[in-house]
Specification:
It is built from 14 helices and 14 strands. By secondary structure, the chain is of the alpha/beta class. The chain has 2 domains: 202 residues, Rossmann fold (3-Layer(aba) Sandwich); 176 residues, Glycogen Phosphorylase B (Rossmann fold, 3-Layer(aba) Sandwich), CATH 3.40.50. The protein has a 6-stranded mixed beta sheet, with helices on both faces. It is globular and about 65 Å long.
């Protein structure tokens, strides 16, 4: 297909300046989708993002993907009220003249107000509800405000949504006239090609930001209960902790329960380093109090590793209990301890679950599958 005949699609959101340094699940989802769409080669793809740390507009092209970065105004509330970010994005859109705009995350619901081009919104998470887990009261209020305003705009102005799970669809308050399509986020293809080099007794916990909402203390309680039965056990904790008070709470618990030799903190890792962690772990454990569709579970499944996780958000849609992993009720320490013990002891069960997890991930989360489903939605919107 010739360049001039390709529809132009603008992907708008918090896209990373460096695709090797991804910060969180939304950025990961955007990068995987963009590169999945680029492989189909029927679209002209433009990425638009507002970023801190740059002083002027930056535009460049890599392969079939066009990138456009503009300075991000801080604080967000003033930008929202004054429409600064909206004007900057619209300026880029008017230059590109896309056939369709695909915006990612609640923050960009303001683009749905009288848009000059057809627009689809992919909301991720729920800032208003998630704000209750933020310890700093100022940050908690700001996050709640973002969510509250975004929900108002979502309910009134959004006509087309791509939602990542049935759970998300139930949770959203949308206009009765809105069209909704359910497509999960894609996983980077490299995660499907990892070797199994598991280290005996090595568990993995991954979070972009280790916060109370991820509930690592619940998992540490299980480690403390299991340390005598599995003296070779080691929990690798990946991510950073932005709250010093919570960090101190974690350190105090580890010291009090004498589990220093069972815990290793890696800090934040890039994708290549993270893939090594997946290769070497026996399984992933995620003990969150709230989640949507966790990318770390998708990555672990793609890597052929079972997952033990709490039954929150969309996790029950992801994990087939007893087949690809084990799900537990939040706060049920006995079941968590039992589940970890079973998977540490039973090599055959663990490997069978890992193979089943990979097959499930290939059907649901591969970049090719997600990109083609998304492309079908684009054509539906463009042809209506």
């Amino acid at each position: 297909m010739g360049e001039s005949s390709r529809p132009k699609v603008a992907i708008v959101g918090d896209y990373p300046l460096n695709e090797e340094e991804i910060g969180g699940g939304v950025q990961s989802a955007m990068v995987n989708l963009v590169h999945g769409l680029a492989k189909i080669d029927t679209l002209e793809i433009h990425v638009i993002a507002l970023k801190r740390g740059i002083e002027r507009e930056i535009s460049f092209q890599k392969g079939l993907i066009h990138y456009h970065f503009s300075p991000r105004f801080v604080p967000y509330e003033i930008s929202f009220i004054c429409g600064i970010h909206r004007r900057r994005i619209l300026k880029q859109l008017l230059k590109i003249k896309p056939s369709l705009v695909h915006a990612h995350d609640y923050e960009y619901t303001y683009l749905c107000i009288r848009p000059p081009y057809p627009i689809i919104l992919s909301p991720h998470g729920n800032p208003r509800l998630e704000s209750r887990y933020i310890l700093n009261p100022i940050h908690r209020w700001r996050y709640w405000f973002h969510g509250f305003m975004s929900e108002l705009l979502l309910a009134r102005f959004t006509d087309n949504l791509i939602i990542i799970s049935e759970y998300s669809k139930r949770e959203l308050k949308v206009s009765p006239k809105a069209k909704t399509f359910i497509i999960p986020n894609a996983v980077r293809s490299d995660f499907f090609n990892l070797r199994n080099r598991e280290v005996r007794g090595q568990l993995l916990f991954v979070a972009a930001n280790i916060t109370p909402i991820k509930n690592p203390l619940f998992l540490l309680k299980a480690i403390a209960a299991l340390k005598e039965s599995f003296p070779y056990m080691c929990l690798r904790v990946v991510g950073y902790c932005s709250n010093h008070m919570f960090t101190n709470t974690i350190k105090e618990f580890i010291q009090k329960n004498q589990i220093e030799n069972y815990i290793q903190f890696t800090g934040p890792l890039n994708d290549n380093q993270l893939m090594e962690e997946y290769e070497e772990c026996c399984f992933l454990v995620l003990t969150s109090e709230r989640e949507n569709l966790p990318v770390v579970i998708q990555q672990a499944m793609a890597a052929g590793k079972p997952v033990i996780a709490t039954r929150v958000g969309s996790i029950q849609e992801m994990i087939l209990d007893g087949i690809t992993g084990i799900t537990i009720t939040p706060g049920d320490l006995d079941t968590l301890v039992k589940g970890i013990g079973i998977l540490l002891k039973d090599d055959t069960l663990r490997q069978r679950m890992g193979r089943a997890a990979r097959e499930e991930a290939l059907k649901k989360f591969s970049g090719e599958v997600v990109a083609r489903k998304t492309l079908e939605v684009y054509h539906t919107i463009l042809n209506q």
